Amino acid sequence: xxxRLSIGQYLPGTSLIHRLDPRVKVAGALVLxxxxxxxxxxxxxxxxxxxxxxxxALARVPVAKVVESIRPIxxxxxxxxxxxxxxxxxxxxxxxxxPLLVTTDGARVAIIYSLRLxxxxxxxxxxxxxxxxxxxxxxxxxxxxxxxxxxxxxxELAMVFSLMLRFIPTIADEAQAILDAQAMRGAPLxxxxxxxxxxxxxxxLIALLASSVHHxxxxxxxxxxxxxxxxxxxxxxxxxxxxxADWVALATLIAYVAVLLALGAVA
Length: 267
Hints:
Blueprint: H1 16-19, H2 22-35, H3 42-59, H4 63-70, H5 74-87, E1 93-97, E2 100-103, H6 104-129, H7 133-148, H8 154-184, H9 194-225, H10 244-266
Antiparallel strand pairs: 1-2
């Protein structure tokens, strides 16, 4: 199974989405991800997909990257859909065999509740594909800077979060390389009983842990070589400034939430 993920990988471009202030993109992604939990009907779902697909088209993100961002959660969505399909017992009966029962409400919930999470994944992927790690760090730093006034390490939290996003694809590639190396050596990764398969995973986890520690050690040495000091006041080569396009994007985001809630009230 391929573990290479698009999460955390920046895709260079000159689209309008790329040029937006990173704070606007972070706020927009968070609002889109939270708003999916207000989607309870097919009209809202269609409106949400129309908006997120329009943003992807505006950002000129390749379709392959979009599919790659959805693929890692496909299994989770299928399991979620199965639980909703068979555990929701209200509505008219569509199919029944023994204890298994599928109703109209179960089918509706299984489809809507699973597909709405795809919108959240696409919103996060859009933000990460159109925003560099440096811009993400600056945006998180600006958003968490009020925490520094009450004694909390706002800048350090922002840096840790941005580094986490940056190293997700790196660790995934390392895991895939370890799996390939174990398979070439004849390791029984997908053979035998469940206990044997769990034992075969242990060497992979140990190698991945060693690789992660190696990356962390290299990162700490790089920070030390650059005289990094927590809590120090820093300047920016490119200060963040809101432009008219950013304010328009925020206004559009507010309009999206208002229309989404209005569609839910009408339904």
